[in-house]
Amino acid sequence: MVDPVLSVRGLKVDFGGEGRSVPVVRGVDFDVYPNEVLCIVGESGSGKSVTSLAVTGLLSETARVHGSIRLCGIDVTTADPETLRQMRGRDVGFIFQDPTTTLNPVLTVGRQITEGEVAHGRLKKSGAHARAAELLREVDIADPEGRAGQYPHQFSGGMRQRAVIAMAMAGQPKLIIADEPTTALDVTVQAQVLAVLARRQAEMGSAVILITHDLGVVAEVANRVAVMYGGRIVETAPVAEIFANPRHPYTRALLRSIPRIDTSDSRLDPIPGQPPIPGALPKGCAFQPRCAVGRDQPLCKAEDPALVAVGDQRQSACHFAGALPAEAIAAEPRILAASAAKHEPLLVVDGLRVHFPVKTGVLRRTTGWVKAVDGVSLSVNPGETVSLVGESGCGKTTTGRAIMGLVRATGGSIHFGGQSIRDLDHGTMRKARRQMQYVFQDPYASLNPVLSVEDIVAEPLRIHGLYDEMGGARRIAELFDMVGLSRTMLGRYPSEFSGGQKQRIGIARALALQPKLLILDEPVAALDVSIQAQVINLLQDLQRELGLAYLFIAHNLSVVRHVSDRVAVMYLGRIVEESSRDGLYELPVHPYTQSLLSAAPVPDPAVRDTRRRIVLEGEIPNPASPPSGCTFHPRCFRATEICSANAPSFDRYLDFATRTACHHAGPLEGRRNVFASGAMEIAS
Amino acid sequence: MIGFVLRRLLQLVPVLLLASTAIWAMIYAVPGGPIGAIAGDNASPEQIAAATAQFGLDRPVLVQYADWLWNAIRGDFGMSIRGRAPVLELIGQRLPATLQLAVAATIVSLVIGIPVAIASALRPGSWLDRILSGWSAMALGVPTFWLGILLILVFAVELRWLPSASAYVPIWKDPLGAIRNLALPALTLGIYVSGILARFLRASLVSELRADYVRTARSKGLPERQIVGVHILRNALLPFITIVGLMMANFIGGAVVTEAVFTYPGIGRLLIQAISTRDYPLIQGCIVVILVLYIAINMAVDVLYAYIDPRIDYR
């Protein structure tokens, strides 16, 4: 048996001073072996990041660490600072979440990649540039010599994260800790970065701890999984078994609460309540108040179960681990919105263009245009959900804002309820906006912190002078009922609410004026997995009860598949494919849609080695200087000469319900479905 | 970069125009004039009228302003009414003294401010941080005239090490003499401003210390000295040099009190004298020169910014 690279026993981490200490990690044991990828899964506050920082002694001084952490034979908890410093970079490398903030903006990338080795005395300063270029080449960065001398802001997000991988691997560490390494990246870029990470790990034989909340990523890369909840590991098992037969109620509930990209599933089954706050854990089992099995069971309320073996290589911390009922997913069919009856479309956007000027020179003359939105046409019927999906910078948010009149449209038309609402004067636009409200992505930043939530929800009514007419305080209380918030919370301030509750407040505010259309801009992207399901269900209930139409803007393909009636895929300011939900996911005909769907991780380890994958090269081009012809052609695996010469028109594909803009539209050869297993295909 | 500088210079034109108009208007809004002082108390109305005509002050205000503006554009700021010398010549005598003091005071404030800020930022909340923060607050709170007089009492009157009145000695002619003369006024101004700078840099350092890239640097096993000296300081200096630039620009026209305490021949004192005698051309000249320097220093800061921060692109 090989010795583990890392062996953690009885790890406890407390924060805060004497008397008011908050336990964030409460007794964690695990081992990581060479050549192994251990995924630690958990929601915010589960203690997963703190555990990983404790392993390298990188916690702040207010943290107190108990237990033992043996990394390459040295106990980290008792090592002196100089020994620890020597171990970092040499024995353990770190990859952090957000590559825009983890790199120092004022130093060159090359210097940052090699300065660790220089500090450890293993590399001379004179050789640093050549070494940096070599490391960048190993993570597939083109022109590594030139790139090493550039600064982080000259790199795209995916390139930055690859540079961070190069940096973490520079010292050939035996353990690599990656904390949400792809969470900030787009799905096609995530696929590239995960591929680079896996290849470099295999070449060096290091052990990897990958911390994530994304069960799709787990299924793609993990060998073994540890699920954390409330500061403890509640279940650990090989990846296939975690997904096939979870032995802890939390794991089971988590798997059931996520929307899946590979099926048109039934209603989501959210975990009730909120993840516990480290300072205020429930007595007994931390999951007990949210648990379908153990809620209000005297044993679960009294005693925190120990993590015990429940089979070969498997452990679970549940009093009922041996007696969990058989999996019973309620196969409740999704209730389709009443859009079947043909209405006049509520919103019709035709040829919408939003161009921003690029100004240069002494006189700030306009020398070019960024075509953020360049000819978008779509319609939304009453009671229907139409989704706009695409990667960052594709123009989906700008489209939403232009429809609301928050940015000025450069061209095209926008009709709402049969009336043109483009270029209206202020007063008329305000009236039109009554019917049309916006829910913002970030529930933390979109609520004014100095207003009570009652005033926040009442504000649209007051602005339109309808507060008394629509029932005043009674109306606000009704709205709170509608979004599932207690009326007792009316007088509180936003800081007292969790992320999911804040988003409910944002939805209540949007509903105050009884709109017909909500524009939902990434409404669940900032929320924890178990909370996402709650908010998605709420949105679907509200739609059914109030007959709302949704324009749903998102990058998460699984969520979009779950909520939509129709889906439009955007690339560089244009819609490249639009179809019914199942039409688009089951039979995509545009190469970009096909690549996008194949790059999205599927939470099912059984298909990961056989699934057909198209890894796109490069990243979304700069919209200020888009490629000629079809803007997707430089990355497209079907591109021919005509693609660089002529832009394809947006037309119906054969006699399908699908409309697409591609010279070579058609299903992937051999397979109807990108989710079916097939040979790995790398686009070039 | 050249385009950026040109653009900033173009922006200077309306600022100067607006400022000189405002000053002209303010001068004439206040009763009294320069002629009474020139002609003397016993002057007859005829004598006053003659003097007024001699300086062209009997013409309509707008004509006077247009005349002044036309000459100023061609580089002629007119004659001082009281000093009977070209305005530019009077300013030219004072300008080097002012610049020398401004540079010296800035150096003093940086030499005190930066180490104080680093020492207190590294361990926020420690006893050292509390002592140094207290010191910064005191440096800010003590009035410069009082500090100046205190320094004179100690170093000039009691110890007799330094002169009590500071003359202008060009540093390239007599470095030692220049330092002896500059020491007390530069300390007075520098200590005051070091309090502001230390507080500002400390806040900036403390927030940078929590940045993600610092954690990354630690995870690479870099020594703490390198993390603070290279990674953190370069980022923290970015907002800091803006403040340094503003403070230095402030020394040009705003060191009046200190100049008065040390009877130092700077532009600030010249301007005060000009105002008290209603010497219109001299007031205008001083303010235009102070404004131009103020903007020039801030422009230099912006250019410096581009060198330190690679993200800034002044195209």
Description:
The complex is a heterodimer of chains A (684) and B (315). With 684 residues, chain A is of the alpha/beta class. Chain A has three domains: 6-104 and 173-323, 3-Layer(aba) Sandwich (Rossmann fold); 338-568, Rossmann fold (3-Layer(aba) Sandwich), CATH 3.40.50; 582-660, no CATH class. In chain A, 29% of the residues lie in helices and 21% in strands. In chain A, strands 6-7-8-3-9-10-12-11 form an eight-stranded mixed beta sheet, sandwiched between helices. In chain A, α7 (157-169) packs parallel to α8 and α16 packs across α17. Helices cover 77% and strands 0% of the residues of chain B. Chain B has helices at 2-29, 35-39, 45-54, 61-73, 87-122, 127-141, 144-158, 175-209, 212-219, 224-254, 256-261, 267-276, 280-308. Chains A and B meet through α2, β6, α4 and α7 of A and α1, α9 and α10 of B.
- The coarse silhouette of chain B is globular
Roughly how much helix do the residues of chain B carry, as a percent range? Answer: over 70%
How many strand units of chain A? 24
Quick check: average pLDDT of chain A? 86
The H-and-E topology of chain B, N to C, reads as: HHHHHHHHHHHHH
Distance between the termini of chain B: 6 Å
What is the oligomer described by this structure? heterodimer
Poorly predicted ranges of chain B: none
